[in-house]
Specification:
Helix content is about 5%, strand content about 50%. With about 1150 residues, the protein is mainly beta. Among the domains are: about 25-110, Sandwich (Immunoglobulin-like), CATH 2.60.40.10; about 120-200, Immunoglobulins (Immunoglobulin-like), CATH 2.60.40.10; about 205-310, Sandwich (Immunoglobulin-like), CATH 2.60.40; about 315-390, Sandwich (Immunoglobulin-like), CATH 2.60.40.1120; about 390-485, Immunoglobulin-like, CATH 2.60.40.1120; about 490-555 and about 565-570, Sandwich (Immunoglobulin-like), CATH 2.60.40; about 570-640, Immunoglobulin-like (Sandwich), CATH 2.60.40; about 645-740, Immunoglobulin-like. Strands 1, 4, 6, 8, 11, 13 and 15 form a seven-stranded mixed β-sheet that branches. A hairpin with a 2-residue loop joins strand 16 (about 205-210) and strand 17 (about 215). About 25% of the residues are buried. InterPro entries: Beta_sandwich_EMC7, Carb-bd-like_fold, NOMO-like_N, NOMO1-3_2nd, NOMO1-like_9th, NOMO_12th, NOMO_3rd, NOMO_5th. This is SD-repeat containing protein B domain-containing protein. One of its GO terms (molecular function) is carbohydrate binding. It comes from Strigamia maritima (European centipede).
Length: about 1150
């Protein structure tokens, strides 16, 4: 694909024109994106109001999924994507709060929707059924598992967000098997639900049978079904021996109970079945209950809740010495601690009159061991045995003739017996008596028998031969497993370059606390040691001035003599002490050898006798060039280094001939010792395109050397290096890198003159007539140089290294006219194409708009202006390089607008109020709305001709507006072929608070005992105590419709007065409420006390009666007083006057 990169100038234009904003319109746009090809034309983007009314809908550009929706009003909206069923997109909807400044539309940002795949549905079914179980794991897989789900009711499953392609569906369950567990499917935008089902083979049905709690083996369970089943699996289909038939019909199949009394039918399909038990022994027939069992199998494995049960017999057995071995005659058989019988010559026995139970069985026979047994005897298992002997007696002896000093000849010892046929069996031991004799009881098998020697005896050298004996215990008693003590003899030979006379061979035991050493002085080359106890020894040869292949041997005397021991002289010892690690060459006559001496003392062996010459090589120089060593004088050779090697190299990718280095050597005090130029190097060109020039210097410790390379062609890094020599070698210590000067050469294709070339955003040069340019020289320091080419009206794309490809940009000129061919301004033109390119702009006053600086390619153009339709409604344009395409669009008016103002009662504008036009009569399905601007002006667009609408303030408003109602409530308009203006309305706001006042009718003497309390949800909001006035005013409460309780309380005691306390429930849904309470307590004293009452009682009573009779005239006056108080405190609230009394 050609031209993948858009130059910076085009990107800037795209960003600046990505959105449209004017006094009348905002553009909300973006892309429907997909990583796989889909039909974008099937996808629609819809804009809804917050209340759910559709404002606008559009489809997507078919070439790249771009969409644009005009928004004519500010407010809250919901942007939704709608596509064919089973298509999945994220997000599904986006909430927008359009304020003209801070929202994504006003800022020109994209709102993108991403295609995430299709939803696919399928089923897992049971064999021969159309439904299946829930809980089956189903996986969606390619080369790996992408999704996993479980089936729901009826075996249904679903996968979402599945991209087009080939997939494998796999069903899995921990206990179920499948006839079809895998399905291959192809997914595309035309796919329907999966037609093929995953099929379960069937389900398990389990049961069991027992007798007196013991499982019964061999009972047949016959399976019947009312429906015909042809494909029966997982059970035995052959006829049941001895079964004559049943009224239930033919037997489908049967299963037999196992050792544990359990039986299993596998792969049964859901349905109703009947099981009939049938059990007949060799000589007896047993009844089983229940005689039949009917059950229903669903889409799951089933364990039968009801168990089958079996409703005395002889027991026979055999006793054998080994499995398949000889019988044991005369063995006594004990049952539950009572001897019942003895075995016959053939080892058999019979026990009569047994019942199903658990018994303890013991077999007794001399020299043969049987394990006690606890056995379950049941009708299904009327045989005992064969009973096999567990073990037999095995005996032997340890013969000791002489012990090492300090050991007891008659001590008791242990013998280890280890099974070789069963490695898992732990070894056992047998203890000897004072004569060394032992016995053990061993079961059948192969054994390894060996004496166990205590550590003191082992250290002293006590051994037995053989070390062990292999033993086979089969079916009889074993004797004579005997062992004898062992003593050894050692012998050997010494090989010397001259006579061996005087050399000493030593033998020392390796025992803690024993320092005894035997020695043998050689007269010739032979040596020997007799009567050696077993143990570990070190045998060595001593002659210090000689060296040996081995001067010590480690030997172990175990169960045999040790012969052919040998010592060989390898040469003569040379001792060397060196100040540094070095390589030492030594020569005798024409024979030369090399020795690597480490720092400090060294020892080496020279093979021949004579005088050797020694020389040192390596990165150290020593004072004496030649050193002498005489094998007959045994002097120590001492080496002291005076100079050390310093080496370095110069690396370059180019071979040059003018390299030299300047060397200055100074003493530690700064005095110049030597200054020279070196131009002879060892060149290493073993690696491709790498040339290495190596140099070396010999320096004394603490010398200061400064090295600087020179060349007329190369630049060096670093330019110079200074180091202080150390008392050691410094090989490959210095490295310089030489690099050639660097030039950048490039060109423009096809050739284009005057293209500006930039580096780091700085103009460097321009191309010539041939389109070529050159930059340099530059320092080749590893920095990556990047160049940029610019020329207005062209896209310049970097192709190879520093070459660019140029192509001229194209343009599209659009003109929009109405029915009179007059240009229309303000039409939103949306152009998209290429790689995420889109531009949304409004036509000028003449109806024209030019899209410039466009890359070649395919573009999609769509005009948008509410109340207009366009011909054509959209078009796809193929744009070639450098071309200009002109296109004309005709706009036809299809809808009109309604204008008006929303104000308060005092004429102030009311912004943010939603006004709607709802169609009536034949147009009742239509609805449009708008939100008032800051000046209270609104414009409702899209009203259809020949339709009547009711224009009104919408009921559902933002709660913060606190609107109560509007006047008029609605206006009816009829749309013809023009806009309608002057549809104005006045709105009224709800009060923010409710005022509560009241008065209490009572004698003045009781005022100080009274208080009025206001409660909400049983919590006190406010309390007012009455002291001198019967009138009270509560603090205002929120106008929120909640309920309050107003209650009168007193401190008078009921023991002295009789009274009732009035209360009233109020709802905060009006601006003002006035309450009257009456409080008339009666004193409980004598009549004389009553005559001594207050002098004010009578006039107050008269006043109360007057108020009661004339409350309709008096209370409005009190209400006006309360309203006056309220208006003084909150003049902005219009209060309604309401009062009532509480008696």
């Amino acid at each position: 694909m050609k031209h993948l990169v858009i130059t910076l100038n085009i990107l800037i234009i795209c960003v600046l024109r990505n959105f449209v904003s004017s006094d009348n319109i905002l553009g909300c746009g973006g892309f429907v994106k997909s990583s796989v090809p889909i039909n974008f034309s099937l996808v629609e983007i819809k804009l809804y109001t917050k209340q759910g009314s559709l404002k606008y809908q559009t489809d997507c550009a078919p070439n790249n999924g771009y969409y644009l929706i005009p928004v004519y009003d500010k407010g809250e909206f919901v942007l939704k994507i709608e596509a064919p069923p089973r298509w999945n997109f994220e997000p599904k909807q986006v909430a927008l709060i359009i304020d003209g400044q801070n929202d994504v539309c006003s800022q020109g940002k994209d709102t993108n929707f991403y295609f995430e795949g299709f939803t696919i549905n399928g089923k897992v079914v049971s064999r021969e059924h159309t439904s299946g179980p829930e809980g089956i794991s189903v996986s969606l897989k390619t080369d790996k598992i992408l999704q996993r789900t479980s089936t729901s009711k009826d075996g249904r499953y679903s996968f979402s967000k599945v991209l087009p392609g080939s997939y494998l569906l796999i069903a899995q369950h921990s206990t179920l098997e499948f006839d079809k567990s895998e399905i291959k499917i192809e997914i595309n935008d035309k796919s329907k639900d999966i037609q093929k089902d995953l099929v379960i083979s069937g389900y398990d049905v389990r049961g069991e049978v027992s007798s007196d709690g013991e499982p019964i083996k061999g009972v047949n369970f016959l399976l019947f079904s009312k429906k015909t089943i042809t494909d029966v699996r997982g059970c035995i289909k052959k006829p049941v021996e001895g079964f004559t038939g049943s009224k239930l019909g033919p037997v489908l199949c049967y299963m037999e109970s196992q050792e544990d009394g359990k039986f299993l039918f596998k792969f049964l399909t859901p349905g109703e079945y009947t099981i009939v038990p049938f059990y007949k022994g060799e000589n007896i027939h047993f009844d089983v209950t229940p005689a039949m069992l009917t059950f229903t199998l669903g889409h799951a494995n089933l364990v039968l809740a009801e168990k089958f049960k079996l409703q005395g017999f002889n027991v026979v057995g055999h006793v054998l010495a080994a499995p398949g071995g000889p019988p044991v005659a005369g063995a006594r058989i004990w049952i539950d601690d009572k001897q019942e019988t003895e075995t016959k010559n053939d080892g058999s026995f019979t026990i009569v009159n047994m019942k199903a139970a658990i018994y303890k069985v013991v077999v007794v026979k001399e020299n043969i061991v049987f394990d006690p047994m606890t056995v379950k005897i049941t009708p299904s298992a009327p045989q005992l045995g064969p009973i096999i002997a567990r073990a037999f007696k095995v005996c032997g002896k340890l013969h000791v003739t002489r012990l090492p000093t300090g050991l007891d000849l008659n001590a008791l010892r242990l013998v280890s017996i280890e099974s070789t046929s069963d490695p898992k069996t732990h070894p056992t031991t047998a203890r000897t008596n004072d004569k060394g004799e032992y016995c053990a009881e061993l079961s059948r098998g192969k054994y390894k028998v060996r004496p166990i020697i205590a550590e003191p005896e082992l250290n002293a050298g006590l051994r037995f031969i053989p070390e062990s004996k292999n033993l086979v215990v089969q079916d009889k008693f074993v004797t004579d497993v005997n062992f004898n003590q062992f003593l050894a003899k050692l012998s050997g030979e010494v090989k010397c370059k001259k006579s061996c006379r005087g050399a000493v061979v030593t033998l020392a035991p390796k025992l803690k606390g024993i320092v005894e050493t035997n020695s043998f002085t050689l007269l010739d080359k032979k040596f020997n040691f007799d009567s050696v106890l077993p143990g570990d020894y070190e045998i060595g040869i001593v002659k210090e001035e000689w060296c040996w292949l081995k001067n010590k041997l480690q030997i172990n005397v175990a169960t045999r003599d040790v012969n052919k021991l040998e010592f060989i002289q390898s040469g003569y010892v040379m001792n060397v002490v060196s100040s540094h690690e070095t390589v030492l060459n030594y020569a005798l006559n024409e024979e030369k050898n090399t020795f690597k001496a480490k720092k400090g003392p060294n020892s080496l062996c020279v093979a021949q006798d004579g005088v050797y010459e020694l020389t040192a090589t390596g990165c150290h120089r020593f004072g004496n060039e030649k050193i002498i060593f005489d094998t007959n004088k045994l002097a120590v050779v001492v080496l002291q280094a005076t100079h050390h090697l310093l080496s370095g190299n110069i690396k370059t990718n180019n071979q040059v001939k003018d390299i030299e280095i300047e060397v200055n050597i100074s003493s530690p005090t700064g005095d110049l010792k030597n200054s020279t130029f070196m131009n002879k190097f060892k060149m290493d060109a073993s690696k491709p395109n790498l040339f290495k020039y190596e140099f070396t210097l010999w320096l004394e410790p603490e010398d200061i050397v400064r090295i600087k390379p020179h060349s007329g062609l190369l630049l060096f890094s670093p330019a110079t290096q200074t180091i202080t020599a150390k008392d050691k070698c410094m090989e490959d210590f210095l490295t310089f890198e030489g690099r050639m000067g660097f030039f950048i050469n490039g060109k423009i294709l096809p050739p284009l003159e005057g293209v500006e070339i930039y580096m780091k955003d700085k103009l460097i040069t321009e191309t010539d007539k041939t389109g070529k340019y050159s930059i340099g020289p530059l320092l080749d320091n590893g920095e990556k140089y990047a160049v940029e080419a610019r020329k207005p009206g062209y896209v310049l794309t970097l192709q190879k290294e520093f070459d660019f490809e140029a192509f001229k940009l194209a343009e599209i000129v659009v003109k929009v006219v109405d029915e009179k061919n007059d240009g229309i301004d303000g039409v939103l033109l949306s152009l998209s194409g290429g790689l995420d390119y889109r531009q949304n702009s409004l036509t000028e006053k003449n109806g024209e708009l030019a899209f410039v600086n466009l890359e070649p390619g395919q573009y999609f153009l769509r005009p948008v202006l509410k109340e207009y339709s366009f011909t054509p409604p959209s078009t796809i344009l193929d744009l070639s390089e450098g071309k200009t395409v002109n296109i004309g669009l005709k706009a036809i008016r299809i809808a009109f607008s309604c204008y008006g103002n929303i104000t308060s009662l005092v004429g102030e504008p009311e912004p943010g109020v939603v006004v709607e036009a709802v169609g009536i009569n034949m147009c009742k399905e239509l609805q449009e709305e708008a939100t008032t601007e800051s000046e209270g002006i609104y414009r409702i667009r899209g009203l259809k001709p020949d339709c009547q609408y009711q224009v009104r303030v919408k009921n559902k408003q933002d709660p913060q507006h606190n609107l109560e109602h509007a006047t008029p409530i609605a206006k009816t308009i009829k749309v013809q072929n023009s806009d309608i203006k002057g549809i104005d309305m006045i709105v009224f706001r709800r009060p923010a608070h409710m005022e509560i006042s009241g008065n209490v009718v009572t004698d003045n003497e009781f005022l100080t005992t009274l208080q009025v309390k206001l409660l909400r949800d049983e919590s006190t909001v406010h309390t007012i105590a009455l002291t001198q006035s019967t009138f009270f005013q509560m603090p205002s409460v929120p106008f929120d419709g909640r309920s309050y309780l107003l209650r009168l309380e007193t401190s008078l005691q009921h023991s002295s007065y009789s009274y009732s306390l009035p209360q009233v429930t109020l709802k905060a849904n009006t601006s003002y409420q006035h309450i009257t309470f009456k409080f008339s307590p009666v004193f409980k004293g004598s009549e004389s006390d009553l005559h001594q009452g207050s002098h004010y009682a009578f006039p107050l009573t008269v006043l109360a009666v007057i108020i009661g009779l004339m409350y309709k005239q008096i209370l409005p006056l009190s209400s006006l007083g309360a309203e006056f108080v309220h208006n003084v405190r909150n003049p902005a609230v219009n209060s309604s006057r309401e009062s009532f009394g509480v008696e």
